Amino acid sequence: MTKSEFRYAHHPNDVKRYTTEELREHFLIPELFVKDEIRLTYTMYDRYIAGGAFPVSKPLKLEAINELKAENFLDRRELGVINVGGKGKITVDGTVYEIGHKEALYVGKGAKEVIFDKNGEQPYFYINSAPAHQSYPTKKVTKNEAEIVELGDSKYSNKRIINKLLVNSVIETCQLQMGMTELQDGNVWNTMPPHTHERRMEVYFYFDLEVGQSISHFMGQPHETRHIFMKNHQAVISPEWSIHAGAGTSNYTFIWGMAGENLDYSDMDKVSPDELK
């Protein structure tokens, strides 16, 4: 079963007046993994979709949701999936791809059937999707095949490893890009110093967070920041005008996914920490 919800885009001047409840209602995606369901959130920010597939007792077929007005989910879209659980498999038009922990699969525009299933263990398939104008081949990407970048410094509590999985330096995509950032022991800040990029929107998905711990995700314009406290296996929508950074009460891992005008990973407008308000 595939279920979806719809989110409008928001003007930054309106967001300034949001209460905590309103901020969470519009930007937080609190529950992605529900037993034997595919849960999706369709946002008007670049018509991006984020969600999760959680096959527990049966395989799950990705169905075209009402917002797409299409026969098949990928008639006009591309898809990225990263497994944050145990071994699983994804079948695309009859071809089976075994996807292990922290491995990714890109599925190009035009694929007719996508099925998520277990493979002896319990997978958690995190899903992102964006509109596509061209079809590129379906391809699995492991951490060994990712482009690896080490950033940060323990002095500033932000030492981290960035795994660029579904990006144009690794595979061909139309506009979808996904990767995974792992915070090292004793480090809690992500994307700090922060940045915005008005040519792309982004979604952050947090996992590997210990039970009882929390992450404070910071968003908003650099001079008008807001925060949302988040738990393990939750995602948050980041508009193109917003920073996207966070600090946890312990270290964690997060997946970043984005789409927009270009595929230039370095296209960002950096903000010095002492400029934030």
From TrEMBL:
Record keywords: Isomerase, Metal-binding, Zinc
E.C. number: 5.3.1.17
Cofactor(s) needed by this chain: Zn(2+)
Catalytic activity: 5-dehydro-4-deoxy-D-glucuronate = 3-deoxy-D-glycero-2,5-hexodiulosonate
Cofactor binding note of this UniProt entry: Binds 1 zinc ion per subunit.
Sequence similarity: Belongs to the KduI family.
Protein name, per record: 4-deoxy-L-threo-5-hexosulose-uronate ketol-isomerase
Species this protein is from: Christiangramia flava JLT2011
